[in-house]
Design goal:
Largest interface: A-B, 85 and 115 residues
Low-confidence stretches of chain B: 275-284
Number of strands of chain B: 9
Mean pLDDT of chain A: 87
Shape of chain A: flat
Oligomer: heterodimer
Order of helices and strands of chain B: HHHHEEHHHHHHHEHEHHEHEHEHEEH
Number of helices of chain A: 5
Helix content of chain B: 55-70%
Structural class of chain A: mainly alpha
Helix content of chain A: over 70%
Mean pLDDT of chain B: 88
Radius of gyration of chain A: 20 Å
Strand content of chain A: under 5%
Largest sheet of chain A: none
Distance between the termini of chain B: 71 Å
Radius of gyration of chain B: 25 Å
Number of strands of chain A: 0
Shape of chain B: elongated
Largest sheet of chain B: 7 strands, parallel
Chain lengths: 105, 464
Amino acid sequence: MEAHSSEVFVIGLTVFFLACIIGYYVVWSVTPALHSPLMGVTNAISSVIIVGAILAAGSQGFDTSKIFGLIGVVLASVNIFGGFLVTYRMLSMFKKKTKKTKEKE
Amino acid sequence: MSANMVAILYLISALLFIFALRGLSHPESSRMGNIFGVIGMIIAVFTTLMFKSVLSYYEIGAAILIGGAIGSFIALRIEMTALPQLVAAFHSLVGLAAVFVAAAAFYDPVAFNIGKVGSIKTASLVEMSIGTLIGAITFSGSVLAFGKLQGTISGKPIVFKFQHLINAIIFLLIIFLIVLFVINQSPTIFWTIVIISILLGFLVVIPIGGADMPVVVSMLNSYSGWAACGIGFTLSNNLLIITGALVGASGAILSYIMSKGMNRSIINVVLGGFGGEQDTSASKDNSDKIVKQGNAEDAAYIMKNADSVIIVPGYGMAVAQAQHALREMGDILKKEGIEVRYAIHPVAGRMPGHMNVLLAEANVPYEEVLELDEINHDFPMTEVSFVIGANDVTNPAAKTDESSPIFGMPILDVEKSQSVLFVKRSMATGYSGVDNELFYRDNTTMLFGDAKKMCEDIVKSLSA
């Protein structure tokens, strides 16, 4: 049992460091003009924590854990919808020049 | 659904999140990226709903609807100038959600397969407490940042004696409590950790001043990611670990870029206490110097006769909501055949990329909006620099005056252009409390007044 749980932890740690490295390179490639939308998206995706909240809220009946889970689901949903929508609003504003000026190039 | 199937669906979801961030490398691909993010989230949520242990669809559905409605309502209504507050508020929710998920796992460990009440696995307890700690700090820190950005709390840094020592002691106390918690698994200790972590979050953000907020907001962004990671380890959920790490890395990089934009280390910003109170000590006596003052007609005349204009917007433009009037001004100048471009300093505004969003909102094409290192060498070839609502980021003292608090900060070289127009409310110093010698130069014209009103007046003069 102990050996198994430490194995799980090491796998988690492996995933963690590899993800950090991917994050490092991906985020450096983000253009500075889009740093605000970047915050919007990261905000939305960090709410994937909703997965944990759903597991806690999933049981039938009502106990402490379920209530906490449901609160977690509400909070994370605010963020998921809010984060993606506000990012969508921001991104839809970033427009190219009008065609007339583009032809000049 | 088998465990392998779940793992594969979570992996797909994580990959979609990575593509969502990757899409932001260019405005054209960014919209698709956002859609990837949404799909990833949908997959993650539905996969979890398919778990055998998840039965209460009505309650969960209702919770998602309530949260979703609130989130959508806010996101659709918010003014773009208020984005930094919104982002801070959202960060606080991630932090709080992390605390609740950790609490849920503590009260019902069986649901998460981490042991039984009273005999939860040690590793899970440690991971749970770390998730709780970071989550609670993110929560209270973001609430305070929100207050400062919104203006409900003074943006001035609040400094008191032994601040750092107190924080350090509190932190050690939390570590001690975590050890106790792992040993006796008492709910009382769990909630004590939560409360003290919340207190620590407040104390960490309190000494940080308003204009350092870009760093703080980025830092809290990073924390919210690490909190998700902590919960991911608790639940042995790779999706949470990957996403948390992506967000954590993203926030950390943004904090780094922001503090570099101010030539300060992140540690220096976090320790805080910069600016706000030092106006008198730092500024030299400039009372005898003469300032050349102008009005909207002068500005219109100067710009009309130029070949090229670079506009330097700052937080003042956002406060005055001047971006639309400014774009109108730019349009008229462009019609006259004048080259108009915008120069953005990395720390302009109250969050990373804030100015870019505001200009985009006002329909300024993104090709005309350039970053510091893209445009800085063009100032000597530029006739007019139009500085609106910015101050410290143009101050040549950053290059010449070693005693200046902003010494070493990269600045936009507006001084090198033939003439400089400064739109300002008054002669007040920037947030750093440093006087800007540019105001007294011969080729500088000060335009005093509200930024929006000034742009509108210039537009009138230009069209007249």
